[in-house]
Amino acid sequence: MHAEHQTTEITPEDPVDAALAWHQGDPRATIATLIEDCRHLRRQLALSEGAMSRGMTRGWTPSYDRSE
After folding, report:
1. Backbone angles phi, psi at 57, to 5 degrees
2. Is residue 4 a part of any domain in this protein?
3. pLDDT band at 4 (very low <50, low <70, confident <90, very high)
4. pLDDT tens across 22-50, in order?
5. Cβ atoms 23, 37 nearer than 8 A
6. Structural domain includes residue 30
7. Number of structural domains, the chain?
8. How far is the C-alpha of 63 from the C-alpha of 68, rounded, in Å?
9. Which of 3, 17, 63, 65 has its CA 20 to 30 A from that of 43?
């Protein structure tokens, strides 16, 4: 007996809706998590910047702020 494999189409979620759903609709918890994620990523960026050689990146250096 062969089991049938059902394929489902995966559709990308709206990232805002997904973040809110992860926190059961609590906007303050969602914002707090996103701020902490930003802090974590900035620390990771600082660590990787210290480990990269300028020759490896051909003079590119990371930016901590988004450019408009």
Report:
1. -100, 5
2. no
3. low
4. 999 999 999 999 999 999 999 988 888 77
5. no
6. yes
7. 1
8. 12
9. 17
